[in-house]
């Protein structure tokens, strides 16, 4: 009986040792990365329009090219959330404004200086995989646009109201290795703000003291963001 028990124990140890060696020598599985980070170069192209009080005309906001950083967290293989960070500077002016009320021409372009925009955006995404390296995605999300470092141009002062907005995106990643990849991304953001221009300094000579000239405007920026960059999973 003792010999039988020793034989069974020896066989069990042999099987366990063989299984351990097989697991040790097998190829490791791919790491299940939950996070990824991208650095992109992004072209920012506003599709702007505005309702400008008193002087009328249309708004003119410049294009720009900026660096952009984003972080993505994967809840599942397909569902993720991406936080997008970037800031951009734009020059601002009006086209075809009527300045006759303050002694100017009836159609003029007005320099309104420049402003920086910081629109942190949170996108909720669906990712898919075609083959081993091509991974397209779509996203829908919200942003809060902060306007700062305003320069007023020819006016005395200018103020932009911070606002919530929304946007959508689509793009794709192409794997270079398990950890590193390249990225192409398109986003459309719907941004708007209320602007107040203080043009009191442009009033003609002889205007009664204490008279002010606030010019309100409702501005839609709605920029397209076209980006290309590299990314890393971790």
UniProtKB/TrEMBL annotation:
Signal sequence residues: 1-21
Keywords: Signal
A Pfam entry, by short name: OmpW
One GO cellular component, as annotated: outer membrane
Keyword Plastid carried by entry: no
Biological-process GO terms, alphabetical: transmembrane transport
The name this protein goes by in its record: OmpW family protein
Organism: Myroides marinus
């Amino acid at each position: 009986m003792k010999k039988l028990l020793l034989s069974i124990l020896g066989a069990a140890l042999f099987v366990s040792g063989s299984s351990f060696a097989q697991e040790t020598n097998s190829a490791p599985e791919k790491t299940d990365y939950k996070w990824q980070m991208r650095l992109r170069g992004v072209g920012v192209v506003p599709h702007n329009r505005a309702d400008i009080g008193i002087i009328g005309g249309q708004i003119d906001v410049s294009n720009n090219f900026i660096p952009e950083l984003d972080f993505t967290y994967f809840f599942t293989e397909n569902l993720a959330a991406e936080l997008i960070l970037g800031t951009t500077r734009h020059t601002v002016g009006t086209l075809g404004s009527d300045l006759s009320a303050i002694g100017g021409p009836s159609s003029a372009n007005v320099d309104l200086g420049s402003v920086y925009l910081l629109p942190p955006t949170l996108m909720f995404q669906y990712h898919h995989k075609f083959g081993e390296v091509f991974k397209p995605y779509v996203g829908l999300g919200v942003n809060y646009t902060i306007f700062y470092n305003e320069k007023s141009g020819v006016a005395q002062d200018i103020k932009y109201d911070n606002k919530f907005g929304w946007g959508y995106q689509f793009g794709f990643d192409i794997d270079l290795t398990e950890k590193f990849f390249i990225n192409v991304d398109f986003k459309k953001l719907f941004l708007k703000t209320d602007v107040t221009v203080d043009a009191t300094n442009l009033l003609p000579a002889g205007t009664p003291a204490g008279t002010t000239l606030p010019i309100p405007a409702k501005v839609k920026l709605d920029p397209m963001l076209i980006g290309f960059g590299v990314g890393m999973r971790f």
